[in-house]
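Section 5: illustrative case.
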């Protein structure tokens, strides 16, 4: 089951996102996104096992800025389900996302659910370019 997340879900979200436990910046992003109702959580047997942040702040296009699945629940289709869920909420003609060049799992997922490479920005993460992907929204 996937639903919009609320502030009460913050602790459960941080529990599955190791980076949120050490990064104030990530925590701030999650809080702000929860306030804006742009966080979506995947729930299995009553527990949050994955989340994504999706909004239309990227050139007014639908954009998935974060997608995280609990390490114990990877390769179960949860990441793909979250992507497909927010695609249905997309109000622009194309939906966009990005990931580091080094992130093979995310790129494989995106390829599998029909995204194509849209371009690269070199200077966000020095040494690991940010690759943008997009797909025609349905
Ligand atoms: C990337 C991530 C979200 C994928 O989530 P997931 O729920 O495991 O993905 P899915 O089960 O939907 O995988 C769909 C397909 O993607 C590909 N894929 C996923 N993980 C992969 C991996 N580790 N290696 C190679 N291909 C992979 C496979 O083709 C997979 O299909 P298959 O399992 O039938 O072979 C997850 O690995 C994760 O949370 N990573 C850490 C955070 C991150 O990097 N997020 C992305 C940028 S914000």
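Designed sequence:
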């Amino acid at each position: 089951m996937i639903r919009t997340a609320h502030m009460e879900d913050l602790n459960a979200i941080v529990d599955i996102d190791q980076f949120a436990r050490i990064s104030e910046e990530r925590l701030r992003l999650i809080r702000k996104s929860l306030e804006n109702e742009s966080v979506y959580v995947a729930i299995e047997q009553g527990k949050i096992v994955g989340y994504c942040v999706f909004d239309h702040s990227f050139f007014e296009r639908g954009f998935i800025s974060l997608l995280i699945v609990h390490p114990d629940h990877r390769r179960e289709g949860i990441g793909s389900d979250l992507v497909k869920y927010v695609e249905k909420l997309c109000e622009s003609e194309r939906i966009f996302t990005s990931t580091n060049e080094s992130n093979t799992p995310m790129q494989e997922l995106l390829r599998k659910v029909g995204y194509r490479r849209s371009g690269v920005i070199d200077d966000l993460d020095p040494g690991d370019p940010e690759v943008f992907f997009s797909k025609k929204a349905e």
